[in-house]
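#struct-help
A.M.: can someone run this one for me? Single chain, 205 residues.
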Amino acid sequence: MLYEIRTYQLKPTSLPEVLKRFAEGYPHRKKFSELAAFWYTEIGPLNQIVHVWPYESLEERARIRKAAMEDPNWPPKIKDFLVTMESEIYIPFPFSPPMKPGNYGPFYEMRSYVVKPGTMPNILERWEPKIPDRTKLSPLVMVMQTDVGPLNKYIHIWPYKSLDQRQAIRKQAMDTGVWPPPGGGEVLVTQENKIMLPAPFSPMQ
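D.P.: on it. Structure tokens below:
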């Protein structure tokens, strides 16, 4: 399984209309394959939408996208609202849970890290033994690394019922030594995060 994450930067004030047009178009698109999630940013880089599409392979992705583009109702007519468009292909870490529909949020934190070349295997080694205890505090949506796009990058996505819950869980994890995995700081190049909310039609709420 692979996941395509498409991140669109929108013109200010255009988000409500973009969500409306996606909501109208999605019933036509889901005939070919369904979303894993659709979010918009609340904290961090504003005016972004983030949609996640699962595929079994790059070949399946190409086939489905070709078929969907032949539908007159897809893609939604939002080009006048777009500033930039970005697409990245991710492969889940071996111990990552799959992305499943459900009510986990409504607040989703996406943390994106770039590491030095050749150090990703070490990240997996550090993460795997720590995940069971960390996910006892709150669930993990997904942790995965880029396969196509900017390399040496991985993201992890965590849902929370509120921003206060996020703060409390992160403090508890750090105070008890459950999280973050020890070491690893020397291989980090960049770190970013953003808080997102689900669109009304997102399978993950």
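A.M.: thanks! The mean pLDDT is 96.
D.P.: also worth noting: The longest helix spans residues 15-29.
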